[in-house]
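User: Design a sequence. Structure:
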């Protein structure tokens, strides 16, 4: 039986500072507990801390899984890491199929195109890349952002994609020509999350000031949602670039998603999940608050949604039911991302594990 290892809950933040320390302990069955510490000896040129361990512990390597997604057919998974790589794996058993290498520094986000054969990724190197899941080749690299890319969205079948960056801009890209079709928004604040959704007919998205490029495909009647670091949630017409609303929350917005043509969710750094109606966005429909830990991911699921937080909690909320289904196992490690396929739910966590949950009928 493996010995349980416990570590200071904010170790990732503590070890980002020069000479920062974090405690850890190991509890081998039938033996005395071992206590020690990790110490940051400086930050390497690659941005990764150089960490040493006290007697009895060894640091083998430093990386973490940052994001994951499941292909449309449910057969493949993709996960990204702080070591600059991504892995394609068999969703049924986790067997490694391909390693995608080409980003420098952390890969922050990854997702399959609707075909299930192509992957979109964004990294701290400010590059957006498209990959073949079949042979691991990088077929397109988009350059233009001046800061790390934190989230992406795919428009319709994927001829266009959207990216949000630490440089405060959201951009629309033409996959066929590897070109930027325009800056959709320039916020002056980091864009932590983006979502694209079809708008209800009752919502006025405005008209574009200029004729859209013929290379824009599927942007009409779509909304773009931006979760911003400056506590603002911004919605605009994807084709028109015209504002729909700007909502101010309690803290930085980390993630967002659409539930329908007029309902949406957005999660904040202080643990609030806002449900808003685009038709009357001044006051939230409801605010869900289960803990003060950052809301890290939100995903529409059946008649409700799945949320994950920085304290290891991950739960399913059914909109018309008064109970919540908890997904356990992450302990106190942040759950960064959730993906689903039919009755399977996959999560990635700071402990480096991808967990798969099989749901019975809810």
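Assistant: Done.
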């Amino acid at each position: 039986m493996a010995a349980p290892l416990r570590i200071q809950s904010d170790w990732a933040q503590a070890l980002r500072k020069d000479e920062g320390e974090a405690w850890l302990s190991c509890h081998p069955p039938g033996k005395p507990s071992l206590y020690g510490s990790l110490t940051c000896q400086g930050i390497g040129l690659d941005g990764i801390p150089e960490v040493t361990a006290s007697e009895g512990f060894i640091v083998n390597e430093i990386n973490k899984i940052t994001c994951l997604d499941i292909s449309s057919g449910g057969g493949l998974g993709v996960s990204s890491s702080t070591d600059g790589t991504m892995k394609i794996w068999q969703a049924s058993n986790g067997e490694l199929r391909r390693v995608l290498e080409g980003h420098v520094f952390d890969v922050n986000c990854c997702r399959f195109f609707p075909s299930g054969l192509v992957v979109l990724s964004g990294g701290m190197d400010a590059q957006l890349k498209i990959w073949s899941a079949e042979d691991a080749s990088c077929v397109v690299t988009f350059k233009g952002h001046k800061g790390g890319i934190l989230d992406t969205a795919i428009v319709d079948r994927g001829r266009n994609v959207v990216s949000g960056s630490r440089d405060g801009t959201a951009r629309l890209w033409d996959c066929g020509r590897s070109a930027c079709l325009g800056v959709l928004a320039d916020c002056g604040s980091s864009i932590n999350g983006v979502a694209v959704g079809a708008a209800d007919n009752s919502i006025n998205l405005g008209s574009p000031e200029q004729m859209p490029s013929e290379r824009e495909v599927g942007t009409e009647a779509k909304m773009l949602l931006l979760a911003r670091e400056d506590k603002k949630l911004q919605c605009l017409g994807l084709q028109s670039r015209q504002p729909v609303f700007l909502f101010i929350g309690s803290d930085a917005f980390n993630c967002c998603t659409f539930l329908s043509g007029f309902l949406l969710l957005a999660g904040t750094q202080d643990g609030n999940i806002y449900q808003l109606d685009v038709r009357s966005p001044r006051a939230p429909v409801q605010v869900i608050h289960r803990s003060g830990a950052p809301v890290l991911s939100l995903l529409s699921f059946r008649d409700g949604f799945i949320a994950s937080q920085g304290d290891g909690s991950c739960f399913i909320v059914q909109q018309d039911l008064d109970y919540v289904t908890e997904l356990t196992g992450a302990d106190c490690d942040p759950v960064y991302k959730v993906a689903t396929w039919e009755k399977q739910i996959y999560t990635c966590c700071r402990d480096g594990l991808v967990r798969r949950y099989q749901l019975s009928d809810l």
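The chain has a mean pLDDT of 93. The CA atoms of residues 219 and 239 lie 5 Å apart.
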